[in-house]
Amino acid sequence: QVQLVESGGGLVQAGGSLRLSCAAAGRTLSSYATAWFRQAPGKERAFVAQISSSVDNTYYADSVKGRFTISRGNAENTVYLQMNSLKPEDTAVYFCASRWGAGTYRLPSSYDNWGQGTQVTVSS
Prior knowledge:
Elements: E1 4-7, E2 10-13, E3 18-24, E4 32-39, E5 46-51, E6 58-60, E7 68-72, E8 78-83, E9 92-100, E10 113-114, E11 118-123
Parallel strand pairs: 2-11
Antiparallel strand pairs: 1-3, 3-8, 4-5, 4-9, 5-6, 7-8, 9-10, 9-11
């Protein structure tokens, strides 16, 4: 089991930027596929971005491609989500998730480690 803690959420105006952090307690994330999901009120949890284990390939939902960037920190126990050109429709609780494996995983059910979530609110 990997304990994940997200931070960096907040309130921002449309067009602004935020950087979310996902930190693993006492463990490196470099061997884990790590992803960001988001959940807006009344909606299902949706895939945002994933970074693969070892080779660090990245994958994005079409709705955030070109605006969001997922990356690893130098300490290897942190994964970031840089969010630029934010829109009101990006408002949601953002969750970090990880799993052992080298594949591409876009479904929430594919992940067995989750953080508690961090709120992102984009005002128009």
